[in-house]
Amino acid sequence: MKLIKDTNRKGDFAEYYAVTWLWDNGYEVFQNAGCTGPIDMIAVDKKGETLFIDVKTIHPNNNNDKNPNCKKTRTKKQQQLGVQLLGFNPETRGLHFIEHKI
User: Which residue from 40, 30, 38 is spatially nearest to 78, judged by alpha carbons?
Assistant: First the structure.
């Protein structure tokens, strides 16, 4: 599988995968119309719960295990808004929500 190296393209690629993953998991998804800001997309589940999401590309550990090593953190603004980070692994094309330390 060829990996994308351009950082803007990597982000676009991750966000497209995130949208379809969220759809598959029962969310309606509304993407940010601009390319900047603390939120990439808003997802709403069937109960009406809303998630503010920022998609981050993550990379596997160097010790050959399959668990992604993510050192991504939220900005103060994202913390204030309750933004959730959604990690995208470009090698496996897998996604998962990243747990936040308060």
Answer: 38
Full residue range of the structural domain in which residue 1 is found: 1-49
Number of domains in the chain: 1
- The reply to whether 72 falls in a domain is no
Distance CA 96, CA 88 (A): 7
CB 86 within 8 A of CB 57: no
User: Which tokens hold the place of 57?
Assistant: 């590309």
Cα–Cα distance measured from residue 44 to residue 91, given in angstroms and rounded to the nearest whole number? 27
Q: In this structure, which amino acid lies at residue 6? A: D
pTM, entire model: 0.81
List, for residues 10-59, the tens digit of each pLDDT value.
Answer: 788 899 999 999 999 999 999 988 778 899 999 999 999 999 999 998 87
69: amino acid identity, one letter: N
